[in-house]
């Protein structure tokens, strides 16, 4: 899958317009690569220019933050992200200030919570919706294969192939073939 020159130019423009790009121009290639890696699965499926640009702006924010964190130029604090050259310290007591004794100052960095990243959640929802839409279309094209029912039994209800085979009065190998065929058709729908 390739990106057109128009989309590459859009990605470049979005990166260069991001406020964190200033003073980090030397990391442009890393920003660009990270953004392409994150956007590649979806970018060619979005048809609306406005939707594509909004999606790429979300991707840019996360991509640039990740590159800056990985390169050691940014760290997460309680207040948000802080460049490493800005150190926020809790104010030491007056007594320790008067003695010029800073050995009691403790600097700690809270762990970042990456599980609830809004961009990732939005992308996951969009991908899942595309999968569901593809499965419904595939099932409509071949209703006798029961692709939708097999998918629901396997992934929604967590049944094994053997249990599905028993439920549908088919062989386990037939269920395996249909699941594989369904996943191949879903992949084709994404391309």
TrEMBL record:
InterPro entries: Cro/C1-type_HTH, RNA_pol_sigma-70_dom, RNA_pol_sigma70_r4, RNA_pol_sigma_r3/r4-like. GO terms for biological process: DNA-templated transcription initiation. This is Sigma-70 family RNA polymerase sigma factor. Transmembrane segments: none annotated. Pfam families: Sigma70_r4. GO terms for molecular function: DNA-binding transcription factor activity. Residues 150-177 form the HTH cro/C1-type domain.
């Amino acid at each position: 899958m390739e990106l057109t020159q128009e989309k590459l130019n859009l990605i470049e423009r979005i990166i260069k317009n991001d406020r964190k790009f200033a003073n980090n121009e030397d990391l442009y290639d890393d920003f660009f690569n990270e953004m392409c890696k994150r956007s590649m699965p979806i970018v060619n499926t979005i048809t609306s220019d406005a939707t594509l640009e909004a999606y790429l702006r979300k991707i840019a924010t996360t991509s640039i933050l990740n590159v800056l964190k990985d390169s050691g130029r940014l760290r997460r604090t309680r207040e948000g992200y802080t460049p490493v050259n800005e150190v926020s310290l809790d104010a030491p007591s007056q007594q320790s200030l008067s003695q010029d004794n800073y050995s009691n100052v403790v600097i700690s960095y809270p762990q970042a919570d990456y599980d609830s990243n809004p961009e990732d959640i939005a992308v996951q929802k969009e991908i899942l919706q595309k999968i569901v839409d593809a499965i419904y279309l595939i099932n409509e094209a071949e209703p006798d294969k029961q692709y939708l029912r097999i998918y629901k039994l396997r992934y929604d209800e967590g049944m094994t192939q053997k249990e599905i085979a028993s439920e549908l009065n088919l062989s386990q190998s037939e269920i395996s073939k249909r699941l594989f065929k369904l996943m191949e058709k879903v992949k084709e729908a994404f391309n």
